[in-house]
Specification:
Number of helices: 4
Strand content: 5-15%
Largest sheet: 3 strands, antiparallel
Distance between the termini: 58 Å
Helix content: 40-55%
Order of helices and strands: HEHHEEH
Structural class: mainly alpha
Strand order of the largest sheet: 1-3-2
Number of strands: 3
Length: 99
């Protein structure tokens, strides 16, 4: 399948793609430089739903409450998640049967 665009359509499509890339890069860079994020930013940063952030907070994840605004420290959350890691369990191999 081949799509043919005239010059105006090609220019418009190119501009839309450039703007989309610029916006995405700004968003990605914006949250990386900030040590504390709001719930939406935190969810996006960790790749989970906002409801997961609320749930983690109910489990004891660190939350900074500044004048009624909840902020989440990226490094604090990483440390909290690491503290919840369980060592890999070794599975005992069952003896072969019927041999």
């Amino acid at each position: 399948m081949e799509i043919k665009l005239d010059a105006d359509q090609e220019k418009e499509l190119t501009n839309r793609i450039i703007n989309l890339v610029k916006t995405s890069v700004k968003q990605a860079i914006g949250s990386q430089g900030k040590p504390y994020l709001n719930r939406k930013e935190t969810a996006k940063y960790f790749g989970v739903a906002e409801s997961t952030i609320r749930y983690w907070a109910s489990l004891g994840m660190p939350v900074a409450n500044i004048n009624g605004h909840k902020l989440y420290g990226k490094q604090s959350i990483i440390e909290w998640l690491k503290s919840k890691e369980e060592p890999k369990k070794e599975h005992k191999k069952s003896p072969l049967r019927g041999i």
